[in-house]
Amino acid sequence: YVRKLPEWETRLGSALQSRGQSELAVAVFLAAIEAYYSLAKTVSQIYYLNLNESLKGLAEGLNSMPPGEQLVTALQHVTNILRPATADQPQLFEPTLASVLTNLGAQLVHLKRYEESDTALEEAQFIYWRLAQKEPEKFQSSLMEAAKYQDFVLRALSDRKDVKQKPSRPGDDS
User: Fold this and answer.
1) Rounded (10°) CA dihedral 80, 84, 87, 93
2) Contacts of 66 (CB under 8 A, 6+ apart)
3) Residue 91's CB: how many other CB atoms inside 10 A?
4) What angle do CA 124, 31, 78 make, to 5 degrees?
């Protein structure tokens, strides 16, 4: 039963998603992802394929959630699961990790958390750059999307630094 539980959770998540209950679907998909990752590490690497399928369902659920802290928390949680999975199976999970990092960076922009956004987007670009070296037609547009977000973030950070460096009173240069 333990090995079947994440499969059932994935199906339940899909059903909830189709009924417009995306927040509950995300919670169910997260449970399935954790279970599949645990099974992949302890039982058989075949579960990595199931993990990847659950991640796709989760991505749909996350895309329908409104921007905010709850979405950022879910994306951070997924990133924490994806990092070790990517280390184990880079060819399978690197594109997913880069996509989640881009989404996380974009959501952090909405919350004006530019430093965190910059970090996530920089990592996403690095992964996409590596992937685009092998398959440019597949990953070039994703690389450009991450770069577009990071350009916005860097301009926002630069504007913020300019405001801090301006003297508080006219004629005050110190």
Assistant:
1) -60
2) none
3) 9
4) 10
What separation in angstroms does the CA of 8 have from each of 20, 21, 32, 51, 121? 19, 17, 8, 13, 33
Residues 52-62: tens digit of each pLDDT: 888 877 777 77
Q: What is the DSSP letter of 46?
A: T
Closest of 98, 104, 100 to residue 72, by C-alpha? 104
Could you give the count of Cα atoms lying within 13 Å of 83 in the half-sphere of its Cβ?
8
pLDDT value for 2: 56
Q: Token pair of 39, please? A: 């099974």
Low-confidence ranges of the chain (pLDDT < 70): 1-3, 161-174
Question: Tell me: the pLDDT tens digits for 136-151?
Answer: 999 999 999 999 999 9
